[in-house]
Amino acid sequence: MTNKKSPFGNPGALLVLAASLALLSCGAARASVASTQPPLKPITVNLQDKAALRNGALYTLHMCTACHSLQGARYSTLSRMLGMRKDEFKQVIGTNGHHFHDTITSSMPPAIIDAFAKIPSPDLTDIALRHSPAWLFTYLTSFYVDPSRPTGVNNVVFHNVAMPDVFAPLQGLQKPVMVEGLRYGSPAKVAIGVEPLTRGSMTPAQFDRTARDIVEFLYAVGHPHQQQRMRLGPWIIGLFVVLSILTYLIYKLYWRRVDTSEERWWRVGK
User: Fold this and answer.
1) Structure pTM?
2) Is the distance from CB of 40 to CB of 134 less than 8 angstroms?
3) What is the DSSP string of 33-63?
4) Cα angle 231-235-239, degrees, rounded to a multiple of 5
5) d(CA 221, CA 54)
6) In the prediction, which pLDDT does 60 show?
7) Architecture of domain 50-226
8) Burial of 219 per CB tally in 10 Å (0-12, 13-18, 19+)
9) pLDDT for position 31
């Protein structure tokens, strides 16, 4: 009688089966939460544009820090990053009543946060590190009117956002461009863009420039050594190129002497 072994008694077969089931479950999980992703607006970050960084700092510190903190930087480090003297920084941008060497915290008292927001707003340093500049730029420019939300607005890249549209006086109100899509795996109407509804105090080009300045400033705060890396990078690459050339010349010189010599290391002592 032939004794046939079951494939389930083979550890290798069990391992392959477990891996296949894991891949299938991961694929099913991804499919179940699939969502229609709106296109992001392209943006180029230029950390050498001091005027843009100063404008972004002005709007961020006077509008965004009413609710958000920016504890990845101190006012003193911002002064150096923006290329401003201490007295110039205090006069033009200010410290919102804080000391010059303090970290940047929210101006909202804790009692108001407990009464209205319930939880503190996220730190903008974390937001700048977690999202790309294109995402941040699209977020700032893509609020739209949504009467179903408590704040009356929603956002294209952040569905059911809790933040109110604080830029509405500058940008104006917008309405969504909706398409049939998926949200967490279920069919739904998804906003993929916005259209102007009312006019603000700025033209669309001016507001886009302001939003771009804010994104560049937040990116600079979230990546404080980026300017130094950009400045030192070409010199370091040049140093490696010079060392590579010198190493190659030494290699050629050494092996030329070895190849032309009659004595070899394996013949020593014979």
Assistant:
1) 0.74
2) yes
3) T--PPPPPPP----TT-HHHHHHHHHHHHHT
4) 160
5) 12
6) 93
7) Orthogonal Bundle (1.10)
8) buried
9) 42
Q: How far apart are CA 35 and CA 37, in angstroms?
A: 6
Specify the DSSP class assigned to residue 265. G
Question: Which one-letter amino acid corresponds to residue 209?
Answer: R
Which ranges of 33-142 would DSSP assign to H, the alpha helix? 50-62, 75-81, 86-92, 110-112, 124-130, 133-140
Output the CA–CA distances (angstroms, integers) from residue 141 to 2, 36, 173, 246, in the order listed: 73, 19, 11, 52
Q: What is the pLDDT of residue 265?
A: 57
pLDDT in tens, 81-101: 898 899 999 888 888 888 898
DSSP state of 10: -
**Strand pairing partners for 177?**
193
User: Each residue of 132-180: pLDDT tens digit?
Assistant: 999 999 999 999 999 999 899 999 999 999 899 999 999 999 999 999 9
Ramachandran assignment for 122, one of left (phi > 0), alpha (psi -120 to 50 degrees), beta (any other): beta
CA-derived radius of gyration, the chain? 29
* Token pair listed for 240: 């490696």
Instruction: Identify the CA nearest to 164 among candidates 96, 64, 71.
Output: 64
Place of tokens 């604080």: 166
**Residue 268 zone, left/alpha/beta (φ > 0; ψ -120 to 50; rest):** beta
Instruction: With beta carbons less than 8 A apart as the criterion, state whether 123 and 70 touch.
Output: yes
Give yes or no for a contact between 211 and 137, defined as CB atoms under 8 angstroms apart: yes
88 and 57 in contact (C-beta within 8 Å)? no
For residue 17, pLDDT over 70 is answered with: no
Sign of CA dihedral 206, 39, 163, 109: negative
Q: Which two tokens stand for residue 13?
A: 């077969």
Nearest by Cα to 214 from 83, 101, 8, 45: 45
Backbone phi, psi, residue 196, to 5°: -65, 140
